[in-house]
From TrEMBL:
Top-rank lineage group of the source organism: Eukaryota
Record's keyword terms, sorted: Coiled coil
Keyword Coiled coil: yes
Protein name: Replication termination factor 2
UniProt source species: Linum tenue
InterPro entries: Rtf2, Rtf2_RING-finger
Length: 345
């Protein structure tokens, strides 16, 4: 069965621009093979090393597309620092190899801060794939590819770091402005007002009500209580900083917990009010049913004038005021008409 081609983002020392490398998972490509294809013919492959999303890769036998180098990750080829010499017989290459192994063993999670910063702004926070529309953001300012986040929610595969995302209500659809012509300065998106690149160099905010992503500079220079793109009004608490600092994320988390507590409280109050209203309606209904039954029992009794005749009046004479004085047997039908009293049939 033919495997689908996949891609990674590649950066080399000779180019600051990200390149796209397409590879076939069915044909393994090791980092060393990739390194040999990128360096000049006279270059020494041992003087270069790779980082994946900012994390150091020591073993050149790792294949591209493996868990250490997943598809759509950012792979960077770097020069190794030159070592010393004449220090007791150790060569520069040996010193560098020993240093890198020691570095990887003692500090396996050490990450280049610049690579880490860039990865958060160009890749999905969950799948590490390149950000592409449609995108969503959680309440803490992390940006995701919507498809990847929805699939993780459905499959219940969200990491513990994102356990604050409980459903679609915790997602905010964001509208990122693409850079005309594609990638620029390691960024694919920009501020629609100032044109600043969405790559971590500048602070950006997302507006929860409309989803537009604007730079802090635009919001500061243009004083407005409405979105600068769609003109929808927003409040200060509707601004969510994207990929903020630890202090900013802690503030967003505190706001999120307050909002959730307020929602629970409001729901409880509405339930209590609803219960009181139901009791009142039930009481009114019961009272109304009692009146209807009372009226119905009264109406079921046939009215007889003789029953309410005055004390000194003869019942038959008093009743004749309201009824015909003739009996039905006194009426007879002739050839020309029916001799019936009015109201009888």
């Amino acid at each position: 069965m033919h495997s689908k081609s996949r891609q990674i983002l590649l950066r080399t020392p000779n180019s600051r621009r990200l390149q796209t490398l397409t590879f076939d998972p069915s044909q393994p490509l090791s980092l060393r093979d990739l390194k040999l294809s990128l360096i000049p013919d006279h270059g020494n492959p041992d003087t270069f090393y790779f980082t994946a999303n900012g994390k150091l890769l020591v073993d050149d036998s790792i294949p591209v597309g493996s868990p250490q180098v997943p598809a759509l990750s950012t792979l960077t080829l770097r020069h190794r620092l030159r070592g010393g010499g004449g220090d007791g017989g150790a060569t520069g290459a040996e010193s560098r190899d020993c240093y890198l192994k020691m570095y990887a063993e003692k500090k396996p999670d050490k990450i280049d801060p610049n690579e880490q910063r860039l990865s958060k702004w160009v890749n999905c926070a969950l799948s590490y794939e390149t950000l592409r529309q449609p995108c969503v953001m959680d309440r803490l300012g992390n940006v995701f590819n919507k498809e990847a986040l929805v699939e993780a929610l459905i499959g219940k595969k969200l990491p513990k770091a994102f356990n604050h995302i409980r459903g679609l209500k915790d997602m905010i659809d964001v509208k990122l402005e693409p850079i005309p012509g594609g990638e620029s300065n390691n960024a694919w998106f920009q501020c629609p007002i100032t044109g600043l690149e969405f790559n971590g160099t500048y602070k950006f905010f997302a507006l929860r009500k409309c989803g537009h992503v604007l730079s802090a500079k635009a919001l500061k220079e243009v004083k407005s209580k409405a979105c600068l793109v769609c003109y929808r009004e927003f409040e200060e608490r509707d601004k969510v900083v994207i990929n903020g600092s630890e202090e900013e994320v802690d503030a967003l988390r505190e706001r999120m917990e307050e909002e959730r507590a307020r929602v629970v409280k409001d729901k409880k109050q509405r339930k209590e009010r609803s219960g009181d209203d139901v009791e009142k309606v039930a009481a009114k209904t019961e009272k109304l049913n009692g009146k209807i039954e009372s009226v119905g029992s009264t109406n079921n009794k046939r009215f007889k004038a003789a029953a309410v005749a005055p004390a000194n009046a003869t019942k038959e004479v008093y009743a004749s005021i309201f009824t015909s004085s003739k009996k039905k047997s006194d009426f007879r039908e002739t050839y020309s008409c029916r001799s019936l009293p009015l109201g009888r049939n």
